[in-house]
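Why do we care about 3D structure at all? Because function follows from shape, and shape follows, mostly, from sequence. That is the central idea of this module. The next example makes it concrete: a single protein chain, its amino acid sequence, and then its structure expressed as tokens.
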Amino acid sequence: MFKVFAVNRQDLTGGIRECLTRLPSPYENHYGVVTPPPPESGVYLDDITALHSQAMAALGEIAEWARTSTDPYLISRTLRSKEAVSSSAMEGTHSTLDELLIYAKNFC
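And the structure:
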């Protein structure tokens, strides 16, 4: 079934407002967003293809490093630590990644 939640049309961007379509009965008092069909000329990915190749190569290097490393969880711990620094800053607690890593080294 449809998940219904309240949104004011004025809060939507113009492009989204243009895609609003009234839902069928029994939801005729509600609207849904119907996206336009893709362009007939196709979607060109030339600019993205090179970046995708670079990202895949980097992931391959990380996977190889994780297979041969004595500590394959080092990357995920570092990323989790960076996320902790970012979310703490949003909460008003400010620390650097260096401070967090020194704390982890000394107390974990």
